[in-house]
Amino acid sequence: QREKHFHYLKRGLRQLTDAYECLDASRPWLCYWILHSLELLEEPIPESVASDMCQFLSRCQSPNGGFGGGPGQYPHLAPTYAAVNALCIIGTEEAFTVINREKLLEYLYSLKQPDGSFIMHIGGEVDVRSAYCAASVASLTNIITPTLFEGTADWIARCQNWEGGIGGVPGMEAHGGYTFCGLAALVILKKEQSLNLKCLLRWVTSRQMRFEGGFQGRCNKLVDGCYSFWQAGLLPLLHRALHANGDPTLSMTHWMFDQRALQEYILLCCQCPAGGLLDKPGKSRDFYHTCYCLSGLSIAQHFGSGDLLQELVLGVPENRLQPTHPVYNISPDKVVQAVMYFLQKPLLSMKKEAAAD
């Protein structure tokens, strides 16, 4: 199926069907989903396509900072996250220079709330997605300041509920997407110990379905291929956090979920015969599920890194995907490349704030 997935994604880079008209406000997401899927499949992006995409994302950037869902649209943290990830995957000088970091920092401050949370856009809602999107783009582009995330870790910790997972805001039902966003944001901020990690571990491991092998997003819900990443992606982050606590029960060869069962679900139940991946049998393929099914498959195939690297690839060797970074969900090499690039370019406003402190 690998070749069919590639052709499905390649077509999406240049032309979309009418069915995608409803995603007009999510066009940077389409760029990210397709680019990340291609990098997992180890398919290079033609230079001309990469350059065209840089120019398109540049037109999505607001003069006031951040990126909108399309050219001329209001900036919003979700497409800002997607645009920055897409540009980091491209990883060229042209891509990096698209990002107006001074304005991006101003935009993030304009969304910051007194309790440490962030709104998704001016006049928009607060939820834990915004904290993650802000932390992700700020850390990748080296614009984290001493005050930008004051109170954010405490606010996220209040979103952990009695189930053990994390809801969108304090007091809400635990949800796989919000739980990933909350924990990943805390990992970026080096505050993951703010959570009850054992309760979180119990909650997320209980979300893997015994029969299907895939994950559900919430208690008493159906399996969904996209949670192959949102839920399984939590396990590497939890492994790292519990290891820092000196937990002696941790395995040094596998994550704390059934990696084989998840691979079986994705490979046997989530592949469209014409290319692309899907939620579950009977559903239609789309770029969102293609991205997150492949991301979850990658997590299930790769344990650890460096000397501790262990691989479990179900089926033929061609099923192997590139590793993905469990915090940012782009290639680990692309994360390092972006961080090192922007580390050499500190903002003048950040220097002034540091001097004032």
From TrEMBL:
Record-linked InterPro entries: FTB, PGGT1B-like, Prenyltrans, Terpenoid_cyclase/PrenylTrfase
TM ranges: none
First-tier enzyme category under EC: transferase
Gene Ontology CC terms, in alphabetical order: protein farnesyltransferase complex
Co-factor remark: Binds 1 zinc ion per subunit.
Record-annotated Prenyltransferase alpha-alpha toroid domain positions: 1-330
UniProt-recorded Gene Ontology molecular function terms: protein farnesyltransferase activity; zinc ion binding
Source species, domain of life: Eukaryota
Reaction(s) this enzyme catalyzes, per UniProt: L-cysteinyl-[protein] + (2E,6E)-farnesyl diphosphate = S-(2E,6E)-farnesyl-L-cysteinyl-[protein] + diphosphate
Quaternary structure annotation from Swiss-Prot or TrEMBL: Heterodimer of an alpha and a beta subunit. Heterodimer of FNTA and FNTB.
Protein name (database record): Protein farnesyltransferase subunit beta
Organism whose genome encodes this protein: Sphenodon punctatus
Gene name of the record: FNTB
